[in-house]
Amino acid sequence: MISVHLILFLMFGAIAVAGAVNLLVQRHPINSALSLIAVMAALAGEYLLLGAEFVAAVQVIVYAGAIMVLFVFTIMLLNAGEEERTKGSRVAFLVGIPGMLLGSLLVAWVVLRHSGTEAVAAGGWTESLANVPARAVPGSPETIGPLLFHEFLLPFEITSILILIAIMGAVVLASKPPSSPPLGPGQGVKN
Amino acid sequence: MVPLSYYLALSGILFACGVTGFLIKRNIITIFMSIELMLNGVNLSFVAFAAHWHTLAGQVFVFFVMVVAAAEAAVGLAIIIAVYRTRETLNVDQVNLLKL
Question: For domain B4-94, which architecture applies?
Answer without folding.
Answer: Orthogonal Bundle (1.10)
